[in-house]
Amino acid sequence: MTTYLLRDVSPLGAERTDLLLADGVVAQIGTGLDAPQDAVVVDASALVALPGLVDLHTHLREPGREDAETIATGTRAAAVGGFTAVHAMANTTPTQDTAGVVEQVWHLGRRAGWVDVFPVGAVTVGLEGERLAELGAMADSAARVRVFSDDGKCVHDPVVMRRALEYVKAFDGVVAQHAQEPRLTAGSQMHEGVVSAELGLAGWPAVAEEAVIARDVLLAEHVGSRLHVCHLSTAGSVEIVRWAKSRGIDVTAEVTPHHLMLTDELARGYDPIYKVNPPLRTQADVEAVREGLADGTIDIVATDHAPHPREDKDCEWAAAAFGMTGLETALSVVQEAMVDTGRMTWADVARVLSTAPARIGRVDDRHGRPIAVGEPANLTLVDPAARRVVRPEAQATKSVNSPFRGRELPGAVVATFLRGRATVLDGVPCDDDVAVAR
Ligand SMILES: NC(=O)N[C@@H](CC(=O)O)C(=O)O
Ligand SMILES: [Zn+2]
Ligand SMILES: [Zn+2]
């Protein structure tokens, strides 16, 4: 295995030092380290080192929609985006609702070799919201599932939600809720507000999200369980989570990069590239989620990378699929929205994109670790001074539905290391090295 000496890198944006990566771990830290004979020396004097990013919410689409993404293409895109681990959502075909399917996804992730893939288990059979899936068997499987979600759909029946919350306690699992009251959002196309009224598109009101979050934090309190809120998007949701945390309720929440940056104004062009669930909200909501992320009410940023094939997006708004890609732009968007605005430091970025998601997903024995001697060398090197224009056709993901198309964003992932092995160097995926390691 290649040894890397990262010369003059800035861990978490702090003072520069050298990092020696050998035998899969951070072997030495210090200034002016001697380069071992066969080491590859990387001039990292312009780079910030972060613990490898961890995505709690990725749609890899395999099995079932390999025309949109495969585990191989999606995890390669994840590595390019600086990730060393992703949690793969359960809304595949077949659904990830049995030990057999989650083990298959886990095996395919290992075989691809780009990042560690942690399958999410469905809460209910077929995401139908009626009967609990075999949560225990998925937890005990080789995939060691700890995160359970019907994402794409809401676990709307309060009795089913209560049972799921109770059940996952046995193995320290968490239910990740896609908070969307279905009756309030039947036929909804975009955020309900001034813009939806003007465009004549059916609205998806903030209350449909907030009502479910309010119910679920109370359920989590009642049964003493752990709840995670997926892609929180409204100012009211931030308020409810803030209140729940102040009561000591064991709730965590995520926001997506697109909800940190984009608003419903973008729907005015009727371009379905901006159609997503939950919908893009208002500028006041964007301000509130930024503030919530900065003050710790929102624990993490998760991409909700949702690739769709062209034919599902190149159509009229009402017929188009909900969802946006995000793995390869997440870090840049967080830099623009939070770091370059002075709201967060790089140490905060490491928390919201690595340490906290690893902890919520209970993979913090391997990921989201401090950059310290003896720790697994899962690392991301970012050049904060770089700027680049997003070109979806040039991305590693198989799908081109990026809402950031044509935008210039700050920052670039220069390298990603998974257990000391480079998966990305000079911004380019290391196809040959990853193939050898397979
Ligand atoms: N976010 C989306 O708009 N779509 C997701 C489902 C989801 O995250 O709810 C998808 O699977 O396409
Ligand atoms: Zn969702
Ligand atoms: Zn999702």
TrEMBL record:
<dbReference type="InterPro" id="IPR032466">
    <property type="entry name" value="Metal_Hydrolase"/>
</dbReference>
<dbReference type="InterPro" id="IPR002195">
    <property type="entry name" value="Dihydroorotase_CS"/>
</dbReference>
<protein>
    <recommendedName>
        <fullName>Dihydroorotase</fullName>
        <ecNumber>3.5.2.3</ecNumber>
    </recommendedName>
</protein>
<dbReference type="GO" id="GO:0005737">
    <property type="term" value="C:cytoplasm"/>
</dbReference>
<dbReference type="InterPro" id="IPR024403">
    <property type="entry name" value="DHOase_cat"/>
</dbReference>
<dbReference type="Pfam" id="PF12890">
    <property type="entry name" value="DHOase"/>
</dbReference>
<feature type="binding site">
    <location>
        <begin position="322"/>
        <end position="323"/>
    </location>
    <ligand>
        <name>substrate</name>
    </ligand>
</feature>
<dbReference type="GO" id="GO:0008270">
    <property type="term" value="F:zinc ion binding"/>
</dbReference>
<dbReference type="InterPro" id="IPR050138">
    <property type="entry name" value="DHOase/Allantoinase_Hydrolase"/>
</dbReference>
<feature type="binding site">
    <location>
        <begin position="59"/>
        <end position="61"/>
    </location>
    <ligand>
        <name>substrate</name>
    </ligand>
</feature>
<dbReference type="GO" id="GO:0044205">
    <property type="term" value="P:'de novo' UMP biosynthetic process"/>
</dbReference>
<comment type="function">
    <text>Catalyzes the reversible cyclization of carbamoyl aspartate to dihydroorotate.</text>
</comment>
<feature type="binding site">
    <location>
        <position position="178"/>
    </location>
    <ligand>
        <name>Zn(2+) 2</name>
    </ligand>
</feature>
<feature type="binding site">
    <location>
        <position position="308"/>
    </location>
    <ligand>
        <name>substrate</name>
    </ligand>
</feature>
<keyword id="KW-0378">Hydrolase</keyword>
<dbReference type="GO" id="GO:0004151">
    <property type="term" value="F:dihydroorotase activity"/>
</dbReference>
<feature type="binding site">
    <location>
        <position position="304"/>
    </location>
    <ligand>
        <name>Zn(2+) 1</name>
    </ligand>
</feature>
<feature type="binding site">
    <location>
        <position position="59"/>
    </location>
    <ligand>
        <name>Zn(2+) 1</name>
    </ligand>
</feature>
<dbReference type="InterPro" id="IPR011059">
    <property type="entry name" value="Metal-dep_hydrolase_composite"/>
</dbReference>
<feature type="binding site">
    <location>
        <position position="231"/>
    </location>
    <ligand>
        <name>Zn(2+) 2</name>
    </ligand>
</feature>
<feature type="binding site">
    <location>
        <position position="57"/>
    </location>
    <ligand>
        <name>Zn(2+) 1</name>
    </ligand>
</feature>
<keyword id="KW-0479">Metal-binding</keyword>
<keyword id="KW-0862">Zinc</keyword>
<keyword id="KW-0665">Pyrimidine biosynthesis</keyword>
<comment type="pathway">
    <text>Pyrimidine metabolism; UMP biosynthesis via de novo pathway; (S)-dihydroorotate from bicarbonate: step 3/3.</text>
</comment>
<feature type="binding site">
    <location>
        <position position="151"/>
    </location>
    <ligand>
        <name>Zn(2+) 1</name>
    </ligand>
</feature>
<feature type="binding site">
    <location>
        <position position="277"/>
    </location>
    <ligand>
        <name>substrate</name>
    </ligand>
</feature>
<feature type="binding site">
    <location>
        <position position="151"/>
    </location>
    <ligand>
        <name>Zn(2+) 2</name>
    </ligand>
</feature>
<dbReference type="GO" id="GO:0004038">
    <property type="term" value="F:allantoinase activity"/>
</dbReference>
<dbReference type="GO" id="GO:0006145">
    <property type="term" value="P:purine nucleobase catabolic process"/>
</dbReference>
<feature type="active site">
    <location>
        <position position="304"/>
    </location>
</feature>
<feature type="binding site">
    <location>
        <position position="91"/>
    </location>
    <ligand>
        <name>substrate</name>
    </ligand>
</feature>
<feature type="domain" description="Dihydroorotase catalytic">
    <location>
        <begin position="48"/>
        <end position="234"/>
    </location>
</feature>
<comment type="similarity">
    <text>Belongs to the metallo-dependent hydrolases superfamily. DHOase family. Class I DHOase subfamily.</text>
</comment>
<dbReference type="InterPro" id="IPR004722">
    <property type="entry name" value="DHOase"/>
</dbReference>
